Amino acid sequence: MTTTRERDQAVLVVSGGMDSCVLAYYYAAAGFDLHLLSFDYGQKHVKELEYAHKYIARLRERFAQGEQGLRVQHEILSLPIASLLPDSTCALLNDEEPMPYGHYSDESMKTTVVPYRNPNMLLQAATVAWGEGASVVAYAAHQGDHAIYPDCRPAFVNAFNAMLAAAMDGPAPIVQTPFLQFSKAQIARLGASLDVPFELTWSCYEGGRKGYGELHCGRCGTCVERRWSFAQAGLSDPTHYASEALDEDEGFHA
Ligand SMILES: [Zn+2]
């Protein structure tokens, strides 16, 4: 660590999505200064970064300009993941690849796996944490991610922390995943209790393309999961979806 801090700082990897937003509010409510990192990695739904700006502006009004006076920094960093994978068939990176519709844990959702996305992002975050003397790095992996996304599983988190400890002498930052065993409905409930502005978050993998504009498609894996999380949590969903029906056709297996 190169500096000593008066208050703990957390370096958070945040997308424009609701889980990331709840994560940021969770650490702010716990009294951490925040250094938030979002990434343009060549994703088709880069629109999510506009929404990251929106909810972080709201968070800043409440926690930075309010009584707590937390320090809140946000940066968007570029990662050349898409350009390192020019032949990728990943549906999040390749314009020609159709977005799979259905439930988040369906086999078809494996086309949305971006190789080594979280380790790439977390290593940037750990580097920032090292430089700023922050003890905590975190991201919003949750239980629903485990089936499809290997870099959201406990085994990955443990291995990554072992790597951080081995890669530098001295006290390494630790990756925390407070939602690792939460369902997305539990994250939604936690967010509601923290008065999180869900309407300022963006999940849809279509990213406003194909004429969706500011609407979520309502049918891609992350839209379906988002809709069910609010329904299961018993919360009203402020999201505007292009497809209003949520039924068996969308592959939700409750
Ligand atoms: Zn969608």
UniProtKB/TrEMBL annotation:
Q: In which pathway does it act?
A: Purine metabolism; 7-cyano-7-deazaguanine biosynthesis
Binding residue positions for ATP: 14-24
Record-level Gene Ontology MF annotations: ATP binding; ligase activity, forming carbon-nitrogen bonds; zinc ion binding
The answer to whether the entry has keyword Zinc is yes
Could you list this entry's UniProt keywords, alphabetically sorted.
ATP-binding, Ligase, Metal-binding, Nucleotide-binding, Queuosine biosynthesis, Zinc
Read off the SUPFAM superfamilies from this record: Adenine nucleotide alpha hydrolases-like
Query: Which residues take part in binding Zn(2+)?
Result: 204, 217, 220, 223
The enzyme's E.C. designation: 6.3.4.20
A GO BP entry is: tRNA queuosine(34) biosynthetic process
Q: Which Gene3D superfamilies would you find in this protein's record?
A: HUPs
Reaction(s) catalysed by this chain's protein? 7-carboxy-7-carbaguanine + NH4(+) + 2 ATP = 7-cyano-7-carbaguanine + 2 AMP + 2 diphosphate + 2 H(+)
What is the required cofactor set for this protein? Zn(2+)
What the record notes about the co-factor is: Binds 1 zinc ion per subunit.
Regarding protein family, the annotation reads: Belongs to the QueC family.
What HAMAP family would the database entry show? QueC
Query: What task does this protein carry out?
Result: Catalyzes the ATP-dependent conversion of 7-carboxy-7-deazaguanine (CDG) to 7-cyano-7-deazaguanine (preQ(0)).
Q: What is this protein called?
A: 7-cyano-7-deazaguanine synthase
Gene behind this chain?
A: queC
